[in-house]
Amino acid sequence: MEKFSHGGWRPAADRFIKIMEDPFYRTLIDLQDLLTVRTAEFWRQRQVKALHLPITTGSVSSPMGLGSDSVPVGVDLFGQRTYLADSMQFMLEYGCRFNPQGAWYLMPSFRGEDADETHLNQFFHSEAEIEGGLDDVIDVVENYLTMLSRSVLEQIAGDIAAHAGGTDHLEHMAALGTFPRMTLDEAVQHLGGDPLAVEVADGWRTLTRHGERRLMAEVSPVLWVTHFDHLSVPFYQAYGDADRRTSLSADLLFGVGEVVGSGERHTTGEQVRTALAQHGVPEADYQWYVEMKDVRPMRTSGFGLGVERWLLWVLNRWDIRELQLAPRLNGVTIAP
User: Three-state SS for 52?
Assistant: First the structure.
């Protein structure tokens, strides 16, 4: 099956003209609209409040330290050094102090790495934070994705089938109920000695894209991997054991690999200080965040869904750069 529409993703001068008549991009807009509307309805039913937040931040959630998997995008704004948001998770945690049921948003995220088939420089994040632990947020994510799958099947199944070659993947997720899980330790054991499947560094391990795809092919096409090594995740994830080796974190794999990242957060300021020191991140950079947890300790957990990765899975495409009406590449001026 042809995986590229005639518009493609490459930023040609006439691309914006060509794609106006492309049925693929009309369906893409339908999906974007469906996700936006149904997401708002989903959180309203749970009394989780939407937050309107700036796209700039002084406290990036993937800092340059142990466990970071992205490069922050720094900008000079009227003489002040700041960052375009990679995530506003910290502000969602702050929002939970106003509304214990939780807080959510759907907004852009910015990353400094080069784009490729599975990664965009600018993408949309559907993120939320709720009161509770890792199991609580896993349950919410499963309900959220099940709802989205059923909504697509109910509203635009014909169009999706035409572009994706079928809807079996949506039907499978909609019928799952509880999604399969395995820990990182179990995943590493399953993958055996495959050096391409697991990246190993000093004191931590993480899955490669090849490892994720093996797990989806050999275990389940929809699969949670939980309890990653703490030094392989950002400092803010809660510890999963007394020795501080693992984290209360979970990635949901489907489609291209990780589509949802989630985790339980540290409850107290002292726990955050311990993690900051372990990860080699200066406490001064996150003083307000530590102070918030000193003043108002709260057990919360949250997740982020990469919207374009979800769209990529729904439409059965293989290059995420197709999933933009207006491509954005770092260091390239593109109109419109």
Answer: coil
Residue with tokens 């991009």: 25
Taking the C-alpha atoms of residue 16 and residue 297, their distance in angstroms, rounded to an integer, is 49
From CA 181, how far away is CA 192, in angstroms rounded?
A: 18
Q: How far apart are CA 148 and CA 259, in angstroms?
A: 14
Q: How many CB atoms lie under 10 A from the CB of residue 50? A: 15
Domains located in the chain, CATH noted: 15-322 (3.30.930.10)
User: 113 Cβ partners below 8 Å, 6+ apart?
Assistant: 70, 71, 119, 121
Report the amino acid identity of residue 41. E
What beta strand segments (E) does the chain contain? 49-50, 56-57, 73-77, 80-84, 103-110, 122-131, 181-183, 198-201, 204-207, 223-226, 249-254, 257-264, 300-306
**How many C-beta atoms surround the C-beta of residue 248 within 10 A?**
24
Amino acid at site 215: L
CA 295 vs. chain centroid, Å, equals 29
Tokens of 116: 């490729």
250 in Cβ contact with 225 (< 8 Å): yes
What is the pLDDT at residue 203? 86
- Per-residue pLDDT reduced to its tens digit, 58-96: 887 766 556 566 788 999 999 998 999 999 999 999 999
Edge-to-edge order in the sheet of strand 56-57: 56-57, 80-84, 73-77
